[in-house]
Amino acid sequence: MGFVGAGMGVGGLLLPLVAFSLGQLGWRLTAGLSAALVLTLVLGIAQIIRGKPEDYGLIPDGGKSAELTSGLEVPKEAKNSALETAAPSLFTTREALQTSAFWLLALGHALGVMAASSLTLHMIPHLINRLQVSLEAAATLAAVIPVLTIFSQVAGGYLGDKMNKRLLAAFCMLGHAVALVILATGAALPMILLASVIHALAQGIRGPLMPSIRADYFGRRGFATVMGISLFIVMAGTLTGPVLVGYLADQFGDYRNAFFVIAAFSALGSMMFLLARRPTPPRHFVVVAPG
């Protein structure tokens, strides 16, 4: 998940190029060229994507063969794959929705992307207004975030395999809050760079934890639907964050108060992750001693 997430950071490296194209070619032609590039790459890469390991006679990393998991008693419909038979928890979608952990993870995740999407859209105009720098210079400063995110995504995946994902996610949300406060109050380049570094590390480390912690908590049986419903909730943060920040900036004349508000939401998200403990496995899943 860390390496997958790092791909989004690689895309962020094109931000200065996009800013240059906007200045030279205008937004219409830039948007058209971006669309053509995305379509070309996505359609090509989609041809080599593969599905479940079981479809190719393989077992997912960490999985066990059906022979080694005969001591697990699970519903008949869950015995179609080796990993599902060995999964630590087999929640259906309905069972997952009935846990507080599902909603706490979804809301905490939503507040995380609220901070990320707000900075993505409003950091450059904030730098232009506060530091009086050019569009190209502001875009270069903002590019620090995706560059560091590339490495921190991989680091987040590694740390998630070694440490408590829930506590890591809570710590990252505090990082978002600290970065936003520094960005709101800092008027010098070193402070802006510090805020960018903290935000990038928090965003990158938190990224691969979000899908993997849901897999840990709810298993693979209903993972696709669980993740889909979660992202429906998460999108609320993606959409409302930039709008709220823009509205508050218009009302107060700058971004400082808006960033303080998003920082408070990030701190709230940290509390939600702290409270999102692993749910008790459903009653129909019983572990019995082999033999």
Explain what the structure shows.
This protein has 291 residues and is mostly helical. It has a single domain (2-49, 88-278), classed as Up-down Bundle (Growth Hormone, Chain: A). The chain is built from 12 helices and 2 strands. A two-stranded antiparallel sheet has the order 1-2. Helix 6 packs parallel to helix 9 and helix 11 runs antiparallel to helix 12. The radius of gyration is 22 Å and the shape is globular. The two termini are 37 Å apart.
Provide a short characterization of the protein structure.
The protein has 291 residues and is mainly alpha-helical. The protein is built from twelve helices and two strands.
Largest sheet: 2 strands, antiparallel
What is the beta-strand fraction? under 5%
Give me the CATH fold name: Growth Hormone, Chain: A
| Poorly predicted residue ranges | 66-88, 286-291
Number of domains: 1
Query: Structural class from helices and strands?
Result: mainly alpha
- Strand order, largest beta sheet: 1-2
Helix content: over 70%
Element pattern in H and E: HHHEHHHHHHHHHE
**CATH class placement:** Mainly Alpha
CATH architecture: Up-down Bundle
Radius of gyration: 22 Å
What is the overall pLDDT average? 83
Task: Count every helix, treating DSSP H or I runs of 4 or more residues as helices.
Answer: 12
Distance from first to last alpha carbon:
37 Å
According to CATH, the homologous superfamily is MFS general substrate transporter like domains
The count of DSSP E runs of length 2 or more, i.e. the number of strands, is: 2
Any idea what the shape is? Answer: globular
